[in-house]
Design a protein that fits this description.
InterPro entries: PEP-util_enz_mobile_dom, PEP-utilizing_PTS_enzyme, PEP_util_C, PEP_util_CS, Phosphohistidine_dom_sf, PTS_EI, PTS_EI-like, PTS_EIN. By secondary structure, the protein is α/β, with parallel strands linked by helices. Helices cover 50% and strands 13% of the residues. Strand 5, helix 9 and strand 6 form a beta-alpha-beta unit. Bound molecules: phosphoenolpyruvate and magnesium ion. The site of phosphoenolpyruvate (PEP) has 10 residues, from strand 10 and helix 20.
Length: 584
């Protein structure tokens, strides 16, 4: 019987295959209490399982090749670090030795304790890191229960299979993708998880939050993932299969058409040049940015370097990471944003303040960096050194007033002097830009422009501050709406001011990669868009269909609208008129 389950698309597309249930090994728990004589051997069994998990991770690390190796390697390293965590290991030993729990029960108890800590976090990204704990403990758990022969332990081929699980570890995702897995249905998980990022990189359709998947789907059931609609169809009908074949034909044709755009210039229908930059956090984003013909990196979120590891990355570590991005972009400009920790992004080194009553309005971004000038200077020196390998610009997050830019310029000057004293090579020029995401900076943008060489509008934050609506609170969907006229007028003011001052201005919030906003942003005079590289071709394609001059002429009428619906109606009217008289 045909069954439809709902899930959240984490990586788009459709795929058809046989279900393979990867049962959460975390559930196989033996809750009996141990006799005294059993404690020693049980601790030995636990240690052996941890060693096996370590070896597996090491072997996986060794097998990685190619563009994704670095990125997947980072996840594996993070998991290996967890397996060496003294607190975790001592806690496990104590539960067995003192509490007389079995190894599996001890693992489950430690997992539940840590999961509660991650669950209490507000930041959806950090919350999703709780999955790492599940995945590491799940790996040890399966080592506890697995047959001892290495041959038997090898992962079976996944050709034709769709994996159904609670979550999938990033390392397993990489392994299974290489073995022919077609897609993933996860009953839990979030679209911010590393597995979801990898599924997008591997082009594997993935649904998360498919609540009843493990209870409803059986091994070898035929399943169709529709990650466009957010559905899994178990036992699809002939009609479903026909719809899938039609999607395949369309996707193939669309892929061929878009692929041709990877090397095409970015031009509107009336021939206006637009520059498309990529937002990047991971090595894979750089690869994709190159493959899709990005004009450079418009936003490198450097805080991810700090979020992914324990402790602060040293100057050399940061330098190596930034230099690799610069080299990877092969002479195209790279915009490195300095640390934007704080608010919902807390690092493991404890730099971001904790317990602030209102963290989104607290010590975040440049406010935090200026509070820890020594640590900030380490980052500035690393960026300066990397800038000797190609064109680099520095971008400052959460700028509120001019004084902050003056302070940054002074610190950069000092960093240059320190490096010169050490005999280090220095770049001749390094442009310093301000993110415009605080309303005060947007309103007084002409003052900011006095000290900024360029601007990048961060609409994700600017919208939350202008509209007083938390960007992570989905109950505010109707208010956190980038079509609100007040918000649009402010963006238009920033773009117009930068253009008057003849300084580059880009927009790097999520709307830059959303084709529903392309016409609107063009109407505002935007010429530089920065987005996830996966969205580049769609935006380039959309631009070819739009008449830039006509949109600019229509702009005053758009921004005089009183409601978001009026904006939408007027915009649709203008675009429909263009489509009516266009060749496309
Ligand atoms: C923004 O605020 O729009 C932005 C690009 O920065 P982030 O999403 O990293 O806060
Ligand atoms: Mg921001």
């Amino acid at each position: 019987m045909r069954i439809v389950l709902k899930g959240t698309p984490a990586a788009r597309g459709m795929t058809l295959g046989r279900a393979r249930l990867v049962q959460p090994s975390i559930l196989a728990v033996d809750m009996r209490m141990l006799e005294d004589a059993e404690v020693g051997p049980e601790i030995e069994r636990l240690h052996k399982a941890i060693d096996t998990a370590r070896t597996e991770l090491r072997e996986l690390r060794g097998k990685l090749h190619g563009a994704l190796a670095r990125e997947v390697g980072d996840f594996i390293d993070a998991h290996s670090l967890l397996l060496d965590d003294e607190e975790l290991l001592r806690g496990l030993d104590d539960l067995v030795a003192v509490g007389h729990y079995t190894a599996s029960a001890a693992l489950k108890m430690q997992r539940d304790r840590l999961a509660a800590v991650f669950d209490a976090m507000n930041d959806p990204y950090l919350k999703s890191r709780g999955e790492d704990i599940d995945q590491v403990i799940g790996r040890v758990m399966s080592a506890l229960n697995q047959p001892s022969s290495r041959e038997e332990r090898k992962l079976a081929s996944r050709v034709g299979e769709i994996v159904v699980s609670d979550t999938v570890a990033p390392a397993d995702m990489a392994g299974m993708a290489g073995q022919g897995m077609l897609g993933v249905i996860a009953s839990a998980g979030s679209i911010y998880s590393h597995s979801a990022i990898l599924a997008r990189s591997f082009n594997l359709p993935m649904l998360v939050g498919t609540r009843d998947a493990l209870a409803t789907i059986n091994d070898d059931d035929l399943v169709l993932i529709d990650a466009e609609l957010g559905e899994v169809i178990v036992h699809p009908t002939a009609q479903d299969l026909a719809r899938y074949r039609q999607w395949q034909r369309q996707a193939a044709a669309e892929g061929r058409r878009l692929a041709a755009l990877a090397t095409a210039p970015t031009l509107t229908r009336d021939g206006a040049h637009v520059r498309l930059y990529a937002n990047a956090e991971l090595a894979g984003d750089i690869t994709l940015a190159r493959a899709r013909g990005a004009d450079g990196i418009g936003l490198y979120r450097s805080e991810f370097l700090f979020l992914r590891q324990r402790g602060l990355p040293s100057e050399d570590e940061q330098f190596a990471a930034y230099r690799d991005v610069v080299l990877g972009m092969g002479g195209l400009p790279v915009t490195i944003r300095t640390l934007d920790l704080g608010a919902d992004k807390a690092d493991s080194a404890g730099l971001a303040l904790r317990g602030e009553e209102n963290p989104a309005l607290g010590v975040r971004g440049i406010r935090l960096s200026l509070r820890y000038a020594d640590i900030f200077s380490v980052q500035l020196r690393a960026i300066l050194r990397a800038a000797c390998y190609g064109p680099v610009r520095i971008l400052i997050p959460m700028v509120t007033h001019l004084g902050e830019l003056t302070a940054v310029r002074n610190l950069i000057k000092k960093a240059r002097e320190d490096l010169a004293r050490q005999g280090q090579e220095l770049p001749e020029r390094l442009d310093i830009g301000a993110m415009i995401e605080v309303p005060a900076a947007a309103i007084s943008v002409t003052s900011i422009l006095a000290k900024a060489d360029f601007l990048a509008i961060g609409t994700n934050d600017l919208a939350q501050y202008v509209l007083a609506a938390d960007r992570n609170n989905d109950a505010l969907d109707g208010i956190y709406d980038p079509l609100q006229p007040a918000f649009l007028r402010l963006i238009a003011h920033v773009i117009a001011s930068a253009r008057r001052a003849k300084k580059p201005v880009s927009l790097c919030g999520e709307i830059a990669g959303d084709t529903q906003f392309t016409a609107l942003l063009l109407a505002m005079g935007l010429e530089e868009f920065s987005m996830h590289p996966g969205q580049l071709l769609q935006v380039r394609d959309r631009l070819t269909k739009l008449d830039c001059a006509a949109l600019r002429r229509a702009a005053p009428r758009l921004f005089r609208a009183h409601t978001r619906d009026e904006v939408e109606e007027r915009l649709l009217e203008v675009v429909a008129k263009q489509e009516g008289c266009g060749e496309t």
